[in-house]
Amino acid sequence: MKNLKNAIFYIGVTGGFTALMYWIVSKGKELEIGRNIISPTSKDTLFNQFLVSLYHNLQHPLAILLLQIITIIIVARFFGWVFRKIGQPTVIGEIVAGIFLGPSLVGLYFPEYSGMLFPKESLGNLQFLSQIGLILFMFVIGMELDLKVLKNKANEAVVISHASIVIPFALGIGLSYFIYHQFAPEGIEFLSFSLFMGIAMSITAFPVLARIVQERGIHKTKLGTIVITCAAADDITAWCLLAAVIAIVKAGTFASSLYIILMAAVYVIVMLFLVKPFLKKVGDLYGNKDNLSKSVVGIFLLTLIISSYLTEIIGIHALFGAFMTGAIMPDITKFRTIFIEKVEDVSVILLLPLFFVFTGLRTEIGLINDPYLWKITGLIVLVAVVGKFFGSALAARFVGQNWKDSLTIGALMNTRGLMELVVLNIGYELGVLSPQIFTMMVIMALVTTVMTGPALDLINLIFKSKEDFISKDVLNDKFKILISFGNQEKGKSLLRLANSFVKNQKENTNITAMHLTLSDETHAYNLEEYEKETFAPIVDESKVLNQEIDTIFKATVDVENDIVDIAAKGDFDLVLVGLGKSIFEGSFLGKILGFTSRIINPDRLLDKFTGKEGLFENSPFDDRTRQIISKSKNPLGILIDKELNQVNEVFVPIYNSDDTFLIEYAQKLIHNNNSKISLVDINDQLKSNFVLEKAVQGLSDLYPSNVEILNDKKLNAGFFINQDLMMISLESWKTLVDSQSIWLSNVPSTLIIKP
Q: Pick from 168, 163, 714: which is nearest to 423 by CA?
């Protein structure tokens, strides 16, 4: 009955009001009498009207902007992928994508298409959007700076950093003396031109440098700490210098710029002593929450916009305000991480490529159409490399670094990337740099960034010796291990494994066992009792092993992020976690490691591996482990436990040069546990890679009775039966599983290491 009433009401309302609208429209036709109404009279006219309407829609500024964004993102992601495949930072590919879409290539060979896609009247919208992207990006850069590191490591870093600014700055000013007459725009004073040439020569791309350091696995070494600190100090100093240079350029002379500099100083004081404490109070109130409310996010984003606005009207550019806001954000890891995740995706994926293309539209390689101009470009690159590379290296050598580390610091500090493009665009907008010199400087930015990777490889090759491959520091440095367990039996296996790495170095090592429990699984009144029960088997095992341990217990709502945060704050050299579910079950491997599993008949492999089926079906731990892998900045070991009781026989598959770091862990097992290590050469990698061959040979020479080098083609099922552990890198593990290797049905307990 109710459904019938609803149907009658629906038909009555829709039918009645439809009839009413038809009547009004019919009566409205009478209102057209006396008006010059143009109405289509044929199908051809209707179609023509549609085409005209479509053309006008395509020419609408919003339609053009959206088409530009679609094209830019697709092309930038493609070029970024290509350059990442050849071992270069993604940002280089995105910069090249900008040049590709600009007048240097597409504009040169397809001018009509270029004119349609990037009409001059549309470039203003593109520029403003790209500036918003830069503001958000500089906000993230400011947040990623660890000012505590600067305080702790300031002595050597400041010397190296400031030398790496002063030397190229002076060389840049010297170069400008010789090229001012020919290349400076009309009406630009020598002071303005020379200052911008100097600051352009002295900039370092902190984000690109930090990623290179992490990718090469040196971020936890003393060298990595020094170079990151140098880059941070360089970033802060360079942006302050840039603000002063912009003030001088806008004012015309140094004396007349003092007012702007004074206002900038007042701004910095207000930010440090008024705004920063206020933001810290907000952070303390909301820092422990998993998600931030829109009101809290609004406070910080409003602070960012106001700060950027103030520095823009003061005259030192909005980007400085964004950088400053990021630097004074509350020093709470989770708090900053949430904000970085909120801002970074939009700025890096959507808006920054617009900046690269806008830069590319200004870059006309065709302007350098003479051998003499290419010589000048080469001279600019040479001055940039000599000033930054060798300036940083000599300063590092002076403060006590060896030549290898000094040159490595120089190569990394010579990375310019995106930061250089920001400076060059500011100079171009101020009219200080002509299109010709702007193009030359963009080429210099590309060359100095692209050369970083090959330069580091060359330095390693030149200075490599057997002693370098097997460092004595491996056995002398303080080594801290964090084991994070959920299951007590897995915790005992993790502890046995950790003990094998350090048992003969107990005075110089530390093992911390950690258990995090979801807060909704326990109650506050019995947390102490629960903690005691949880750690009892682990403590008992530590007594059997004669290994002292520290313990951490915490009730949390965010297990994976807390593991990552605690590991980072504790500066652990290795974090060991247990895999809580069989990796061979269905598509779980793809969820854990972020790639598609193509294992044939996974149930058969599961049976051989565990003897069970459906183990921990629908467990939430799959996603948790994946999160830990993706977010961890510490070296991470994932143990697939098949009742690991001892670590006497270990085999290590070597797939490529990136597996060289495993030699260090193998050395620790030999030294501390007298383990027998079988290095398995996959597809004759040792013969084709000099660095890898020397590392393996060095280990074999030091421990001839503990090391055996095997060819993978000679392995059989009997080999795996006698092994206690397989130790393999994360990337090689992906390769092994993706190849559907028969090993997977025979391997013992496995330690997958992400460096």
A: 168
pLDDT of residue 308: 92
Q: How far is CA 609 from CA 26, 613, 694, 728, 743, in A?
A: 78, 10, 35, 17, 11
> Buried (b) or exposed (e) across 579-617, using 16+ Cβ within 10 A?
bbbbbbbbebbbbbbeeebebeebeebbeebbeeeeeee
SS3 state at 473: helix
Q: Which one has a higher pLDDT value, 580 or 679?
A: 679
pLDDT score recorded for residue 45: 62
Task: Provide the 3-class DSSP secondary structure of residue 511.
Answer: strand
Q: Are 320 and 242 in contact (CB under 8 A)?
A: yes
Distance CA 217, CA 658 (A): 10
Q: Report the pLDDT value the prediction gives residue 444, as an integer from 0 to 100.
A: 93
Is the distance from CB of 729 to CB of 655 less than 8 angstroms? yes
pTM of the entire predicted model: 0.58
* Distance between CA atoms of residues 601 and 622, nearest Å: 20
pLDDT at 604 over 70: no
Q: Tell me: the pLDDT tens digits for 113-153?
A: 888 888 888 888 888 888 898 888 888 878 876 666 555 55
Pinpoint the alpha helices (H) of 218-328: 222-251, 254-270, 276-286, 294-314, 318-327
User: Within 10 A of 139 (CB to CB), how many other CB atoms are there?
Assistant: 30
**Structure tokens that stand for 553 in this block:** 């217990």
d(CA 710, CA 233): 47
8 A C-beta contact, residue 385 and residue 414: yes
HSE-up of 500 (CA within 13 Å, CB side)? 25
400: left (phi over 0), alpha (psi -120 to 50) or beta: left
